[in-house]
Each structure stands twice: as C-alpha cells, then as structure tokens.
Amino acid sequence: MNDELICAFATAPGTAALAVLRISGQGAAQLADKIFRFGPIGSNNSTRKVVALNGYQAAYGHVIDPLTQETVDEVVLLRYKEPHSYTGEEMVEISCHGNSVSRTRLLEACQHAGCRLATKGEFSKRAFLNGKFTLTEAEGLADLLQAEEKQAQKLALQQLSGALGRQYSKINSDLLDFEAKCQMAIEFPEYPEYDISAAEYKRRTGELRRQLQVLLAGYNQGKIIKEGLKIAILGAPNAGKSSLLNAILDEDKAIVTDIAGTTRDVLEAETSYKGILYQFKDTAGIRKSSDKVEKEGIKRSFKSAFEADVVLWLVGEPTDTALSVDNASTSAPEWETYVQGNLPATKLLQELQAKGIKLFFVVTKQDLSVCKPLLREIKQQYAVNYPVLPCSVYNRTEIMQILTSLYDYYLSLGDQSLQQNVKVSSLRQYQGLGEIDAILQKLDEAAGGSLPPLDILDQMLQACLEKLALITGQKPDEAVIETIFSRFCVGK
C-alpha cells in the first residue's frame, strides 16, 4: 500500500453534467472528512464521518475548502475499502457538477487537505503493483482507452479479460515443468524416472514452439486492429490520387483540379471498414521537378510509402511529365531511382517487399475509353505478383472493391492453419516472444535434433522463463512499466 495520497479526475475535461474525482492511498477516507460534509449545502452535520461508511456505500453532501471554509459544490461521495477498489488501496470517488470551476475548486480543496495530483497512469500503476492485474492486462487496458474501432475494442477487451495472460501462463507452466525435471535429472542421475529422452525433449520443445508461433503469427493482424491499416496513395500527377481519396471518404477532403502538382504535402484521412480503421495518406504526384516545394513533397511521398502497410500505386493516363529513370542525372535525388515512367522501378518494388509492405496497382479513370487498354497492359505486366484493380471514382462498386481488397489483405496476414483465438498487438510482447522462440530454435539447431547437454538445456529454459517474466511483469522492469503507464490519462 502506498502511503502517499493522490487525486485526479477520472472523467474527461470539458463541460458535462458530472465529473468524477478519484482519491487513492492510505487515509483517503480521513482526508475526505476534511472536505466533505453530509447533507445539503448550509447544513453542518458533524456527527457523520466518511471513515464510518462501509465499502461501496455512497453519501450525499457538499464539499468545503479546508483552507477558506468556502462551499465548493454539492456532491455525491462513494467510499471503497482496500483491497476492494480499482487500485487495491483505500479510495474515495466524489461526483461533482461537470463545469470547469467546480472541477478546479474540488481539486484545490483536496490539495489543501494534503493530497497531491496524480501523474499519468498512476492509479493503474498502483493497481498493477497491488496485483489487481498483470502487465499484459494493463497494456490491454491502455489499448481499450485508445480504441477507435469495434475490432480494436474487442481485441483490447480480450486482453484485459486475461485471455492472453492465460496463454502466457500455459507457456510459463510448461517451461517450469520442463526446467524442474531437467534439474532433477541433473541432481539425481541415478533415478531413471527423471531421465529425459531425445523424444521427450523434441515433444516438449515442439509444443512450446507451437504455442509461441501461434501467438507470433497473430501479431500482424493484431497490430493493424490496434493501430489501423496504414495506406499510402502514390502515383504520377493527375493519376487520380486525391479523387480516389475523396471517393473513398465520400467527401471533398482533398483539392482536385486538372492542374498537375496540386497536392504538395501529405494529406491524411481515416475511414473504417468492417471494424478496421483505414488510415490513408494522399501524397504529392511523382514527377521530375525543379520546384523546391514540390521536390520536398515528392520526398515525403516515398517516406509515407515506407511507413505504410499498403501502397496503392495509381496509374492513370500516360503523361509526358512523368519522370523517367533513363534521363535522371547523376546528381538526382535518391527517390528518382524508385520510378520508371509512371510505374515503380524494380528497386522500389524490392525494397517495399523486403519491408513487408504490400503494393496494389490501381488503374484509374476506367470510365474513359482511352484508359481501358492501360488496365490490360498493367495486368499483363504485374498481375502475377501484385493485385491489379480497376477504378473509376464514379463507380461505387469499384471503390468498394478497393476497400474489400484491402480487408482481404488484412485477413491474409493471419495463418489460417493456426487457431489464433488470441492475438498479440504489443510490439514489446511480440519481440519478447520472438526471443524465446529463437532460444529454443538455436538450442535445437546446436544439438542437431538430439538431446542437448542437460546443463545447457537447463540454462536455456531458465533464460526463456526470465524473458517471459519480463513480458508478463512478473520480473518488473521499471523502464517498461513507466512507458506502459505513461500511455494512460492522468485519472486512470
């Protein structure tokens, strides 16, 4: 239990009917007695005390500032007794009117009574330290607070409920059981019941790696559910990038003209599809230019591409203003080697593939007869390795097909042969699981598929347990804990 009293509003800033203030720490009820009076404003019922309230019992009254004795607001107070509270400590919640003056004055009254303002995520950090939830559940809670789409909320709730934690517990239990038997085999080699055969070693490590790989395989989908699918729209000027963005959003988000180079900077916009957040970036048209501003915009176009999950490369009518790599000078910027005419050069395709970024070709202006042969040409050249989609911004079916194709790509990121009921969405957890899997893989490779020396096996299993303890928070890492809880708002 933390002896220091902290307070903060759990509700968001702004005018509302109510605002809820939290006070947590040893002596929260005693502090409340310094500022809370039972009954309506003007009454002075000094016989009743907050410390006499039962846990989960509410009381109507008003707050006074202990420094000035002025009335602050009419409120409802709710008491929690430790450990049956959110933080696991003694807690008080006070609901006041939701205007900025009442909120400010209530905070001041608490501070005058001896309470300090909480820092970001301090209530949740105390809850974690008091065993109310695990570190992985805390990350699920942080994701829940930031969820913007249905699938993200469902994933966060799944993690908050402990579903992911139970998977970690199973891996931890299997590692502990194997490591214990390994130690027994080392200490008591004369007892045959403690022997570990090569077959048992393969079976145990194989099952451990299967569990790890199921979790690892779900990360790409989990990351997109949590953060959204990042989509960069690239292509030559007047290929229809801004028109496509407007058609997808069904609003005039981007300026569209027949003047090439209208878009100079990156324009960001979001929409949702089947519960997944799509984050689009409309970028500057790619062409050879002497304009300093336009050149910077084109540079940012490729930066957006390499930060995306998906690149939509738009191809419209052939144009004489498109950059050709053949006439690029030796002093040309690096990005000029990424294009050849209106199309991405092999170098760009290779670098995107190496980074795991999916490229779609979108052949635009299919309502124009002059552009229809271009669709056949692009399909002949690229359809073997890349999706090629037709698009007219006047054809809603083709716009929806683009959204559906993006969703199908998201689905393809999961391994359909594995039961991915629980998905990892935290990079920290994903990297930690990968390190455990790598230890087991290297151990097996070093032993050539046979049983490794027992002392080496024991050391490697202990290393796996330590890394798993860092993931779950059983072995606290203060820097990791601070980073996770800094994502929370002050009142959480």
Question: What key attributes describe this structure?
Answer:
15 strands; 492 residues; six-stranded mixed sheet; alpha/beta; single chain; 16 helices
Give your account of this protein's structure.
The chain is α/β, with parallel strands linked by helices. It contains 16 helices and 15 strands. The strands form 3 sheets. The protein has a 7-stranded mixed β-sheet with strand order 3-4-5-6-2-1-7. Strands 9-10-8-11-14-15 form a 6-stranded mixed β-sheet, sandwiched between helices. It has a two-stranded antiparallel sheet with strand order 12-13. Helix 7 runs antiparallel to helix 14 and helix 14 packs antiparallel against helix 15 (454-472). It is flat, with a radius of gyration of 30 Å. Mean pLDDT is 87; it is low at 319-330.
Describe, in short, the structure shown.
This protein is an alpha/beta fold and 492 residues long. Helix content is 44%, strand content 17%. α6 (163-187) runs antiparallel to α7, α7 packs antiparallel against α14 and α14 (427-447) packs antiparallel against α15.
Which structural class do you get from the secondary structure elements? alpha/beta
| Net shape | flat
- Major sheet size, sense and barrel closure: 7 strands, mixed
Distance between the termini: 18 Å
Helix content: 40-55%
Which range does the strand content fall in? 15-25%
Overall pLDDT level = 87
**Unreliable stretches covering 5 or more consecutive residues:** 319-330
Task: Calculate Rg over CA atoms.
Answer: 30 Å
Alpha plus pi helix count: 16
Spatial ordering of strands, largest sheet: 3-4-5-6-2-1-7
DSSP, total strands: 15
